Amino acid sequence: MITDPWVLLLLVLAGVGAGLTGATAGLASLVSYPALLAAGLPPVTANITNTVAMLGTTAGAAAGARPELAGQRRRLVPLCAITTVGGAVGGLVLLLTPSGAFTVIVPWLIGGASLVLMAGPRLRRLAEGAEHHGLSPATAVIAFLIGSYGGYFGAAAGVLMLALLVTVWNQPLARTNAAKNLVTGSANFLAAIVFSVTGKVVWPAALAVCLGSLGGSWLGSVLVRRLPATPLRIAIGIGGLGLAVVLGLRA
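^ that's the sequence the OP posted. Answer follows.
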């Protein structure tokens, strides 16, 4: 149990950073997850606690991006349903697999997510030339897999979802980014409910990160309309690769 007020304050600040980067770059967990590890939580416990805490990012991002979300309900509802089920599946996989397996897999997930993040603009440029479609079976399957990944770990799930949505929706990036935040947040929803009843959530830490991420994601949704995310994206990607190497050596 985390009770040190200074540790909780640092987790709130980490939550602000996670919300800010999640709303702008889709990489909230690469800020909040290491912070929970630094607070002394074991890897699986930190991941479970982080999944619950990231609900604040979804709420804050949705509140800050209401203008961008207007008129998108018809296509967001089925996508959110798909990723919600996927997130529940990913959460169950996490609970049913040995913790040692998670420790080994996580460095690869973080490293891969960091590479995807840094390649994000190139992926979007490639996608811009693609033909735009509705919710095809292939889109639904990919969204489900991204949702499952989000429920299992989630770092850069937003980047993967943004790359998918850009290929199927022809609209301004700010609107697609707002939709991405809601769709990936849905993947966390059922997973967070599942985790909440397991007794493995460290609630003081979860609430501290959630509180910070609520404000950070709201601010990030406002800033994404005005500020380029490239320097932040590159810095977080490099930091993520460094974290992957450190965790890989420890594993």
